[in-house]
Design a protein that fits this description.
Blueprint (H helix, E strand, L loop, with lengths): L2 E6 L5 H19 L8 E5 L18 E8 L4 H16 L8 E8 L5 E2 L3 E2 L12
Parallel strand pairs: 1-2, 3-4
Antiparallel strand pairs: 1-3, 5-6
Helix pairs in contact: 1-2
Length: about 130
């Protein structure tokens, strides 16, 4: 945990798709201080007509949404760092900063089943969520 989903409205090469996933994962490692091995990220590629983008975007084909479900506890500053990290890392791949939207959904640890069906509140996560 956290789990992330990246939604895009253009096709990318296989290597670029891996780079998108790695960019978001790297941002989570840097900002939320999760272990590098904690990688739960999905990439969804939409046909452009199935993904509406604001009409004033310079390059609407680069419109990118990132949704992150995580355990509650991260500070506002940690979230601000995450937003900056994601935008910075995606910009290296050509995604304009103003074409990225990010949603973080905090969930109590009792609302997560992990490690063979245990409630996350009952296990040692191996990292701190109160950052």
């Amino acid at each position: 945990m956290p789990h992330a989903q990246i939604e895009v409205r253009r096709r990318w090469s296989d290597d670029e798709e891996v780079a998108l996933i790695d960019a978001v994962h790297g941002a989570l490692v840097a900002a939320f201080q999760i272990p590098v091995k904690d990688k739960h990220i999905r990439l969804v590629v939409h046909e452009p007509h199935r993904f509406a983008a604001p009409p004033d975007l310079a390059q609407p084909e680069y419109s990118t949404m990132v949704h992150i479900d995580c355990f509650a506890g991260r500070s506002v500053e940690a979230k601000r760092n995450l937003y900056r990290e994601i935008v910075q890392r995606l910009s290296v791949l050509g995604v304009p900063a103003d074409h990225v939207s990010i949603t973080v959904r905090d969930n109590p640890t009792e609302n997560g089943g992990i490690r063979g069906g245990q409630a996350a509140c009952d296990v040692d996560l191996g990292f701190d969520i109160d950052i």
